[in-house]
TrEMBL record:
It comes from Macrosiphum euphorbiae. Its main location: membrane. It is a multi-pass membrane protein. One of its GO terms (cellular component) is membrane. It comes from the Eukaryota. The keyword Transmembrane helix applies. Keywords: Membrane, Symport, Transmembrane, Transmembrane helix, Transport. This is Major facilitator superfamily (MFS) profile domain-containing protein.
């Protein structure tokens, strides 16, 4: 079957003069994560602008333009920053389960629109009701954005051929870093204008609306339902996924097998550890850069964005090289996933320890900050894509489960930081935070090395669909395609289901 998929790939590549529709879908999902992170990350810079030091130029600028500012404690700010992840934690698994039954394209669009509506309402509500309403808004945005990653993984499982998975899904996940870059740079610039920090929420909301329109016009849940895809590309994608992806929508989720699978727990622990380190840096580094390294709000945003720009740029050669090595069978897929994951997480752990001892040396601290974040791109071809390896039929469910557990990292990072850091200018207190993050990253990396795998798990095969039946379906589909018969395989599913019931009687 792999050789047939390879032949179809070669045939499709020779005929196609323009990129396939699967690349368009990857680009749209990239923009989805870009928009999601505009809405999610902007609070990291906005909260600095909303609570400026009274002796800073930012405070003078905002009072001059009559922009409301607030006097919130570090504990209050940590509560605001962590509120998103409580909603995210609660809703991730239910979101994945909902995605098993309903159209992923529409769920993705609806979740984005709800997040946008909350963002656009934020400035007026916060001015009227102060920080408690901001905590509530961030919690609700966590609920709505919980649909994003499970839906993206569920859609990617139907669009990304195995030998292109690293590149396509890696590119999609690059939307996280690119959205972070634009948010951190743009938010700092917007906050220093006459419109002040409220413009941050309006800009991110406007782009979210733009993405929803694009997605509804050009997006699709699967190749079967896209109006622009060619038959040759559809055949190539479906043939390459035949052995791992079922045609059925309402599959019975093997919960027991998922919860007792060590490879799944390896992904989960790695995901949680990575999230802890990632959100520690993303939510708290703007404060560290402002309080310890003494950068103003505009420079703060630029410096905070630099590591994520490096991460975004680095992920292109990393994902392409990983896919090339896998295609040439230089190493096993399991070894490849473990190698890149270890490089990303253990390398980041080492960098965090060093960062804690940089003190107030701004240049050295920024260089190490760039290294820690940039090397994290290696996890895009490590645990981040491993859900699709283990169980393509349940990729959305697996992402919902691991993302729910990983959301604890997003909750704990700012919360623990708020308990440790009482004096924002204290290098010693920040060193404790960075060292703790390094320990978590390193432990997660070791756990993945021991228990991780990239083999398709036995429970990926639906219990009510035998291999023989699926082989028969594929045989009929291949015969029909070669004979010019273009009807979808769903008609064969109905026939063979009845045949299977008759045989079992």
């Amino acid at each position: 079957m792999q050789s047939k998929a390879r032949l179809l790939e070669d045939e499709f590549s020779e005929r196609g003069k323009i990129p396939g529709v699967r690349y368009l879908q990857s680009f749209l999902l990239f923009l989805c994560l870009f928009a999601a992170y505009l809405l999610r990350v902007s609070i990291s810079v906005a909260i600095v602008a909303m609570t400026p030091d009274k002796n800073s130029t930012d405070f003078l600028l905002e009072t001059h333009y009559h922009i409301p500012v607030f006097n919130w404690t570090q504990h209050t700010k940590s509560l605001i920053l962590s509120a998103f992840f409580w909603g995210y934690l609660i809703m991730n698994l239910p979101a994945a389960m909902i995605g098993r039954r309903y159209n992923n394209q529409m769920l993705l669009a609806m979740s984005m629109m709800l997040t946008v509506a909350l963002s656009l309402a934020t400035p007026s509500l916060v001015v009227a009701f102060n920080w408690p309403v901001l905590v509530l808004i961030r919690f609700l945005q966590g609920l709505t954005q919980a649909f994003t990653m499970p839906m993206i993984h569920g859609i990617s499982a139907k669009w990304a051929p195995p030998n292109e998975r690293g590149r396509l899904v890696g590119f999609v996940l690059g939307g996280l870093q690119f959205g972070t870059v634009v948010t951190l740079v743009g938010s700092g610039i917007l906050a220093s204008t006459r419109s002040g920090w409220p413009s941050i929420y309006y800009f991110s909301g406007a782009f979210g609306i733009f993405w929803v329109i694009l997605w509804l016009l050009l997006g699709s849940e699967s190749p079967d339902t896209h109006r622009l895809i060619t038959q040759s590309e559809k055949n190539y994608i479906k043939s390459s996924l035949t052995q791992t992806v079922s045609e059925k929508k309402n599959l019975i989720t093997p919960w027991k097998e998922i919860f007792t699978s060590m490879p799944v727990w390896a992904v989960t622990i790695s995901h949680a550890g990575h999230n802890c380190g990632f959100w520690l840096l993303l939510s708290e580094m703007p404060t560290f850069i402002s309080a310890v390294l003494k950068f103003d709000i505009k420079s703060d945003g630029l410096v905070s964005a630099l590591p994520y720009l490096a991460m975004w740029l680095c992920q292109f050669p990393v994902t392409y090289f990983a896919d090339y090595m896998n295609k040439k069978n230089v190493t096993s897929l399991t070894f490849s996933r473990k190698f890149w994951n270890t490089l990303g997480m253990s390398g980041g752990a080492l960098g965090l320890v060093v960062l804690g001892y940089m003190g107030e040396n701004a240049n050295a601290a920024i260089c190490m900050y760039v290294f820690v974040v940039a090397i994290g791109c290696c996890t895009n071809v490590g645990f981040n894509i491993n859900h699709l390896d283990l169980a393509p039929n349940y990729a959305g469910i697996l992402m919902g489960f691991t993302n729910a557990v990983a959301a604890l990292g997003g909750v704990m990072a700012p919360t623990v930081c708020g308990f440790i850091v009482h004096d924002q200018t204290s290098v010693d207190e920040w060193r404790v935070v960075f060292t703790l993050g390094a320990v978590i990253l390193f432990f997660s990396s070791i756990f993945y090395i021991i228990f991780g795998s990239a083999e398709v798990q036995p429970w990926n095969e639906p219990k009510n669909e035998s291999v023989g039946v699926r082989s028969f379906i594929q045989m009929k589909t291949d015969y029909g395609s070669s004979a010019g018969y273009t009807s979808s395989p769903s008609s064969f599913v109905k026939v063979t289901s009845k045949y299977t019931m008759f045989v079992r009687q």
